[in-house]
Amino acid sequence: MRVLIAPDSFKGSLTSVEVARALAEGWRRVRPDDEIDLVPLADGGEGTLAAVEAAGGWERHVARARDPLERWIDAAWLLAADGRTAFVELAAASGLSRLATGELDPMGATTHGTGDLLLAAIDAAAERVVLGIGGSATTDGGRGIVEALGATVVASAVAASGPGAGLRVDVGSLDPRLGRVELDVACDVQNPLLGPTGAAATYGPQKGATANQVEGLDARNATWADALEAATGRRERDAPGAGAAGGVGFAMLCLAGRFRRFALRSGIELVMATVGFGERLEAADLVITGEGRIDAQTAFGKTALGVARRARGAGVRCIAVGGGVEPAGIEALAPLVVEVVPVWERAVPLAVAMAAGAAPLIECGARMAAMESAAPR
Q: Which CATH number among 3.40.50.11740, 3.90.1510.10, 3.40.47.10, 3.30.1300.10 corresponds to the domain 48-268?
């Protein structure tokens, strides 16, 4: 058999590269003659850089960038071998993983560092930049990126009832080189910027925001939206994906006209295109995907669903492995005729599962291979 192993990371435990290798090791113990192709995946969040780099053809670069609290750090980004395409991961500079639990600062955290990485890619003469925007520690509406790219934001004297009340944005000072760049933003959420399903209300608590802070962040982003929309002439606050990464989707949509070409695209679809997933799927008899949890969120464009859709379209059988499996996740994948397999054969505490490393995945790979050998064909 030709088996394509294409999982996401098990967040907080193993990267997608480590997950793929572990499943392959277990599978080979039982079926050593099968041909296995490893294609680690991601949906634009933390771990995307590692998945893309593993596909080959990329050179890792390190740039000085600001973390969410404005401390200077070294952050990685990728440049394709031909020098034309760069891959930037927001989480590398502005991610939750950059902060310890006691450092969470929902009101002060900024995306300046992601702007620093975008400028590093532009400095390297990249003609196309892919920006993955998952895993942010921020709810600044993307203001940090906009300022890092050269825009000036100042207090406004406009009356409180006027557009852009409280702020004025000068986009005329944006780096003119943006006009030479094609920007693809990898985004898998549909939230608007504001309101009960917006960036602050939906994701603020995950970044340490209290109920009062969520209200304050939403109000602050409304002021920011007034100002940036007035400056760019684009109303994007209600666009699907505007609330992604604490409003980074909104800021990038507002700046869309400043780039040679701009697109907000499904993260998993964009990553699959970048690593050549489609071509490798055509050669497979079976595809194995997976992620830390297969649950209700799986239905909203996560990696397992993206892979399952492509496998179904190609007529290739699909198995989805989950560190945790819930009925809602099984239900989300059922229309695509996906077999869902839990890593653990019995329920274990989350802390135990996350601390177990690769060993359970190796055993899971072997278990799936044994099931494959025993199945009537």
A: 3.90.1510.10
Residue 78 — left, alpha, or beta (φ > 0 → left; ψ -120 to 50 → alpha)? beta
| Rounded Cα–Cα distance for residues 164 and 160 (Å) | 8
Query: What CA–CA distance (Å, rounded) separates 143 from 254?
Result: 11
Domains 2-41+275-374 and 48-268 share a fold: no
* pLDDT in the model for residue 4: 98
Task: Specify the residue for token string 């990464």.
Answer: 245
Q: Go through the chain and tell me how many residues it has.
A: 377
Q: How far is residue 239's CA from residue 252's CA, in Å, rounded to a whole number?
A: 11
Domain ranges of the chain: 2-41+275-374, 48-268
Cα–Cα distance measured from residue 311 to residue 254, given in angstroms and rounded to the nearest whole number: 35
Residue with tokens 């990898």: 186
Q: Which CATH architecture has domain 2-41+275-374?
A: 3-Layer(aba) Sandwich (3.40)
CA distance 245 to 94: 10
State residue 11's pLDDT score.
Answer: 82
pLDDT score at 377 = 66
What is residue 229's predicted lDDT score, i.e. its pLDDT? 98
Secondary structure of residue 282 in the 3-state scheme: helix
Rounded to whole angstroms, the Cα distance separating 248 from 328 reads 29
- Tell me the C-alpha distance between 128 and 122, whole Å: 9
Distance CA 364, CA 260 (A): 46
Q: Please, which contacts does 343-351 make with residues 24 or more away whose CB atoms are closer than 8 Å?
A: 343/290, 350/324
Weakly modelled stretches of the chain, pLDDT under 70: 156-165, 377
Instruction: Give the angle subtended at the CA of 18 by the CAs of 362 and 323, to the nearest 5°.
Output: 60
Query: What does the pLDDT read at residue 219?
Result: 97
DSSP β-bridge partners for residue 37: 4
Identity of the amino acid at 168: R
The dihedrals phi and psi of 228, each to the nearest 5 degrees, come to -70, -40
What pLDDT, on a 0 to 100 scale, did the predictor assign at position 160? 46
